[in-house]
Amino acid sequence: MSDVYAARRGLLRDRCAAAGNAAALITRPANVRYLSGASPLGAVLLVGPTEDAMFCAGAPTGEADEGRLDEHLRVTVLAGRGGDPAVAAADAASAVRADSLAVEEHHLTVARHRALRSVAPKLRLADLGNAVEQQRLVKDEGEIACLRIAAEIADQALGELLESILVGRTERHLALELERRLVDHGADGPAFPTSVGTGPHSGRSRHRPSDRRVEEGDFLSVCLGANYRGYRCEIGRTFVIGTTPADWQIELYDCVFTAQRAGREALLPGAAYREVDHAARSVLDSAGHAEALAPWTGHGVGLEIDEDPQLAPTAMGKLDACVPVTVEPGVHLPGRGGVRIDDTLVVRPEADGGPELLTITTKELLAL
């Protein structure tokens, strides 16, 4: 993996040089991990003209949630407490007579930016922008393999929950059990706070579990994801509890299912982000649910659960192959509940079979 991280840093170095910057300071944790293999708490990465180095307030631990650091990367641990690794990195860049330093202005606070200027007044600070995020957009097969395992873990955890008794249990209890099962099956932890919604709470986007208990006849919507070696997937399903679904539940479910399938089928290289959103949104809009829809249909996943691209009505850009995204349309009817169906997929060309579905738990409307 050291060669992979070195190659990633090499691409960034070339981009900085082309823009007239001698070095780059990476402070956003996901970007630090992408370029170095690990993101110790508070660590920053200096990508220099000839050598790269990580600056940390404390020694890397090697814990799973931190990642495994590129063994060829030089690490400087600050002496004493209270030091800022970013300031130390800027000082090091100045010491090797770099005349300019590209920084992630979207991540730096104003106070930290001022501190960099004060320690290296002769160093010109330029905005790196979203250069690393754009580099992260297309995943290599090693990254996709981690996402595939994360999806398998999430499928296992959800499948086991569906085999247990659900009536009478609280949303909060079910969410905690799902997160425990994720870890039991090898996840480093949940990819994001698990959402469980029952009855009138079902179908809400990112609903925070409450103490409401599952009742017969409820819709039960679940959204969870696993974090495996830093890579995060997402799956969402909706079920009916205890009885044959009511007519309105079947109708609403079929509508959301049709919309989700349309969104999945639109995931091809070259498709505009807004076209994917439109494919799913138009189905729900035509059924009269326009006001109940979320502002997006899906988003990218990787080292963060919500990263580019955004599949939304005004999003600009087109899909590339090997970009993992979610397709997650849903409808929530106030006072009644609703449906969410959410999958993680990887964009693939039609010659390779089209979009690769990573989350495979059934999307049939089950009565549990």
From TrEMBL:
PANTHER family: AMINOPEPTIDASE (PTHR46112), CYTOPLASMIC PEPTIDASE PEPQ-RELATED (PTHR46112:SF8). Residues 146-348 form the Peptidase M24 domain. Transmembrane segments: none annotated. This is Peptidase. The lineage of its organism: Bacteria, Bacillati, Actinomycetota, Actinomycetes, Kitasatosporales. Residues 8-138 form the Creatinase N-terminal domain. InterPro entries: Creatin/AminoP/Spt16_N, Creatinase/aminopeptidase-like, Creatinase_N, Pept_M24, Peptidase_M24B. Gene3D superfamilies: Creatinase/methionine aminopeptidase superfamily, Creatinase/prolidase N-terminal domain. Residues 187-213 are annotated as: Disordered.
